[in-house]
Amino acid sequence: MLGLKLATDPRWVTIVESNIEEILTDHAWCEQKAASNAISLVTYNSELEDLVTEMLVIAREELEHLQMVHDIIKKRGLTLGRERKDHYVNELFKFMKKDGSRKDALCDRLLFSAMIEARSCERFKVLSENIKDQELAKFYRDLMISEAGHYTTFLGFAKKYADNIDVDKRWKEWIEYETSIITNYGKNETVHG
């Protein structure tokens, strides 16, 4: 479970199946935000060549995922709705440390990113194993694998660029915090909702 302490109840998929257009729209915007996050990491850390190179790969992959979700939406005669707020991500954002050095801020931003990828990966796994729609089951299985790769990339860079932070200890704090907020989610037809 990627270190996550609380698994998504598979009954969440029943909620998702009640409004496929909503989950696909929300998912599309999640991919857009993930691409934007990777670009932001490039913008603020342009001197870190290896990070820039890998974040550009991730940004491209996230945009490809956005295109894939949009293609499914069009194929099904559905409409990409307006962007939604992601309350889960906003709550995670509040936990990020805002003080310390640039490297400290980078480390926490990478852990924030890893947490989002970990939960998305876990949700995609639940979808792939429980949704009745076989096309979407395969789609979410493939994306689950990609999200797991992004999760490990973010964690790896956090460990590489941490100066005065015990990354393993801080990651445990992130997991505890995420466990405390995820109990409020899993009730809506959104990726994190």
From TrEMBL:
SUPFAM superfamilies: Ferritin-like
GO BP, sorted A to Z: tRNA modification
Cited Pfam families: MiaE
Source taxon at top rank: Bacteria
MF terms (GO), sorted A to Z: tRNA 2-(methylsulfanyl)-N(6)-isopentenyladenosine(37) hydroxylase activity
InterPro entries reported for this sequence: Ferritin-like, Ferritin-like_SF, tRNA-Hydrxlase_MiaE
Protein name: tRNA 2-methylthio-N6-isopentenyl adenosine(37) hydroxylase MiaE
Organism: Flavobacterium hercynium
